[in-house]
Specification:
220 residues, 6 strands, NADH Oxidase, two-stranded antiparallel sheet, four-stranded antiparallel beta sheet, 40% helix
């Protein structure tokens, strides 16, 4: 069937050796990525953040609806408001909402309800998922919203790391306060908070190991 609205994909094929080298390089680089909770206040330019978000927005999505909004927050007053609201929810979670098993699982990471990185990191990128689109005042169907936005967030985390910066996936629950603080429309729901910046000098991370290939791959 003729596809008039398609354009040729220019693909540059690598040799088998080049493909293996490239795959090993990607694995070696991304396996060094860690979630950081100690951020420096050193500034990061708006232009860098814009490029990172555009990279995230290049992710595939259901019917190419691109059902995401990225709110880049550098304003100190708004970051403070977000921290205060997030810490309220986190305090309630650590003091009654979370099960004992959950709290035990978190102990090796040394986390608590206090989230200073929400103020100290130069940028917060708050990702919203669009349950449906709006066009000329009319609702438009979106497809595979959670999957699409999740993939875009993966692209964003990758891009942040590749740009020499650090981030942390933060999901204070519930997150409805973000919609209110940022005055987002009713078709958007908060999905993920990503503080972005440089690690604090001497920042530490938990000494953990990732699962082996035998534990995560099943060959057929």
């Amino acid at each position: 069937m003729e596809q008039e609205n398609h354009t040729k994909y220019n693909f540059e094929k690598l040799s088998e050796k080049e493909t293996m080298i490239a795959a090993e390089r990607v694995y070696s680089d991304l396996s060094k990525r860690r979630s950081i909770r100690e951020f420096s206040a050193e500034p990061v330019s708006k232009e860098v953040i814009e490029r990172l978000i555009l990279t995230a927005s290049s992710a595939p999505s259901g019917a190419h609806k691109q059902p995401w909004t990225f709110c880049a927050v550098g304003n100190p007053e708004i970051k403070t408001a977000i921290r205060e609201a997030a810490e309220k929810e986190e305090y309630d979670s650590y003091n009654g909402r979370m099960s004992e098993e959950w709290l035990d699982d978190l102990k090796p990471f040394g986390t608590n309800w206090e989230k200073p990185f929400l103020e100290k990191a130069p940028w917060l990128i708050i990702v919203f998922k669009q349950s449906y689109g709006m066009e000329d005042g009319q609702k438009k169907q979106h497809y595979y919203v959670n999957e699409s936005v999740g993939i875009a967030c993966g692209f964003l985390i990758n891009a942040i790391h590749k740009a020499g910066l650090a981030t942390l996936t933060h999901t204070p629950s519930p997150m409805a306060f973000l919609s209110k603080i940022l005055n987002r429309p009713s078709n958007e729901r908060p999905f993920l908070v990503l503080p972005v910046g440089y690690p604090e000098k001497g920042a530490k991370v938990p000494d953990i190991e990732r699962k082996s290939s035998e534990e995560v791959i099943v060959w057929y």
